Amino acid sequence: MVGVRLFSNLTSRSRDIYNSISKELLSSAIRKDLQKLHSLVITFGLHNSLFFSGNLISKYSQFKDPNSCLLVFRSHSSKRNAYLWNTIIRAMTRNGFYARALEFYAEMRRLEVKPDNYTFPSVINACGSLLDFEKGRVVHEHAMELGLESDLFISNALIDMYSRCNELGLAREVFDGMPHRDIVSWNSLISGYTSNGYSKEALEIYNQPRMDGFVPDSFSFSSVLLACGGLGEVERYDVIVSNGFLSMYFKFDMLANCKRIFDEMVHRDKVTWNTIICGYCESGLYEESIGLFLETVSHFEPDILTITSVLRACTYVGNLKLGRYVHDYMVRNGYECDTLASNIIINMYAKCGDLLRSREMFENMGSHDLVSWNSLLSGYVENRSYHEAVELFRRMKINFQPDFFTYVTLLSICAELIDINFTEELHCDIIKQGFGSTQMVGNALVDAYAKRGKMEDSLKQFENMEFRDTVTWNSIIASCGHSYNSNLGFSMLSRMRVEGGTPDIPTVLSALPLCSYLIAKQQGKEMHGAIYRLGFESNIPIGNALIEMYSNTDTIISSYGMYGEGRKALEAFEFMEAAGILPDHVVFVAIIYACSHSGLVQEGRACFEQMKKNYNLEPRLEHYACVVDLLSRSGLLTEAEEFIVSMPLKPDASIWGVLLSACRASGNMNIAERVSEHLDMPRGHSERLAIAFGLLHTKPGYSFGGNEESSGLWGLPHVTKYISKIMHREILVRDANRFHLFKNGTCSCRDHW
Hints:
Oligomer: single chain
Number of strands: 4
Number of helices: 42
Largest sheet: 4 strands, mixed
Shape: elongated
Distance between the termini: 105 Å
Structural class: mainly alpha
Radius of gyration: 42 Å
Strand order of the largest sheet: 1-2-3-4
Mean pLDDT: 79
Low-confidence stretches: 1-12, 233-237, 681-685, 707-715
C-alpha cells in the first residue's frame, strides 16, 4: 500500500523521491510498511544515505528487530561516521544486546571513529546493565579524555551505572561535580542509594534538592516509598521519613495527609519547617504559610527558598507590613539577595502599593533581567502610575529588550495616557520585535485602539489577524460597545458564529450592552435565548447584565420622551413587557411623560389606566401630574381640571401649577382664576407657582414684584434671574434687607443676598 502511494506521488526529480520516502519513513507505524520502505530505499539507491540508514536502524530497533538493524548497518558502504555507530550501539542497547553494543564500541575505537556525546550514554548504559564496573570505568575515562564528562546525559548515565555496580561513592562524586542537574540526575542517585540499602541517605538526598528547584515525579516518589520501607518499623516516625512523606504529599496536593503527618511528628528539624511553609504557599494556603513562618522564625533559620515563598505569600494576600518585616529579616541575617529573590521583593512591594521601595530595590540591584523590568512596570500600571510606567519602558528599551508581556501590559493603559500617539509607537515596536503575530498582543491591540477611540485602527488590526480566538472576538465585540456601534457589534457576533468561534461568558457580557444601546427588541430576545442554550443562565454576572439591560429601558423611555419620540418609547415599553419585566412606578412616569411630549393623549391615558388594572400599582401624585400635563399640552384644559378635581389624592401645588402654566400659554383666564383659588399664595409655599401667577396676571413687557411676606418666593435668586432674562420681564422683590430688581438676567444687588 505504501509503495503504491509513493509511486503515484513520485516525480522524476530526486528531491521529490527523497522527500516522499523520508516523510513515509518517519511516520511509519507498522513493520510491514517499514519493510516496503526499506525496499524502496534500496530500489532508488538511497541505502548509502546516512539519513535513511540511521532512521531505518532506529525504526527496526523500535520494532524489536535487531537482525534487520544489523543488516542495514552492514550494507552501508561507509563506516567512518559516528552517527551510524551511535545508532547501531543505541539499537543494540535498547534491545538488550549489551555485550554486542560494547563490541561495536570497541570496533568503533579500533577504526579510529571519534565518539561524541551521543555515543557514551548508550555505551555506559550497556556497562551498567552488565554490571561491568571495570569497563564502565574505562568508558568514563574515555569520555574525560574527550572533555565530555560534564555533559548532562553522560553524567546521568554514569550515576546510574555506578549505582548499579554499588559504587555509590563514585556516583556521588559524579553528581556533585555536575554543573547542571535535572530530574533524572536526582532520581538516579536516590534510586541508587535506595536499591543498595542506604534508605536514610536516600531520604536525606530527597529532602536536599529543593535548592535546585527540583520537582519530584512518580519515579522519585516510588524510590522514596521504598526507602521509607527500608528503614523498618522501628524508625517509622523518624524525622527524615516524615519529611519525605511531607514533600511527597504536597506534590500530590494531599494537604490533609500533610497536616496529619506534620501534627504527628514528635521531632521537627529545619527541613520540616521549610517543607511545610513552602508547601502551604505553593498550595495557595498563604495565610497558613505566613502563620507558620511567624511561629517558628525565632527558633529556626529558614532557607532562601522559604524566605521567598513567604514573600510570595505576602504578595498574594497584600500584607505589606509583613513583607517589609521579611525583607528586613533577610538584610539583618545576611541572606544573599540574588536576582530571583530581588525580583520577588520588587513584585511584593509593587503589588502591595509601596512603589517607592519597589523602585529603590530595583535601582539597588547589581543586574536586572526581564522579570525585574516587568515586575516594576506591572506595579506602576496596577497602581495607576502611568507616566512612571511609560518612562520606565523608554529606559528599558535602552538597556533591555522588552518581551510580549511588556507590550501587553502597556497596551492596557493606552486609553488612560495623554500621549495619543503612544499606541501607535507601541504597535511599531511590536512589529519590529516580531510580536505582531502573537495572539495575546494582537488581542490587546484590538482593545487598545478601540478604547482610544480609534475604531478604524481596531478593526484593521482585527482583520489583519491570521487567527482569531474567543478573546479576539470578545475584544472586538466589546470595542463596538465602547464606541456605541451596536450594528457593527451584532455583525461581529454573527461573524463569530459563522467562522466557528465559540461564545463564552465574556462574549455574552460584551454583547448584552449592545441590546441596551439599540433597544433592539429582537436581538435582546435572541441573546436571552442564547444564554439558556449555552447554559449560562445561572451565571451571576450574566444575570446582573440581563437585569441591567432590561432596567435600562426606563432610562431610554425617558430619553425618547425628552426628544418627542413617544412611539419609540411605547415600543420600548412593549419590549420590556414582552421580556417579562414588570414595570414599576418610575417606568410609568417615564412612559406617560413621553406620551405627553408627543401628543399621544389616548396612549398616555391607557398607560395610566394599566397601572392599577394590569400591574396593581396605585398611581402617585407624580403620575396624576403627568396626566394633567398630558391633557393640558393637548389643550384639554377643562378635562384636565375635571381630572384634578376627581383625584382620590389631594392635589398639591405642583399639579395645579401644571394646569396654571397651560392656562397662561393658552390665555384661559377663567380656568386660571379657579386654579388660583386652590393655591395658597400668601404663604408663598411654591416659588414656581408664584412666578407663574405673576407672569399670568401681568401683560407681556410689564414688571411685577413681591414683598417680604412672599419672600419664600425668592428662595432661588439664580432661578429668578434666568426667568427675568427668558421672559424679558423686570421682577422687583423686597426681602428683609433691601429691594432687588431682576432685569435681563442680573440683579441690582450684584448677588449680595
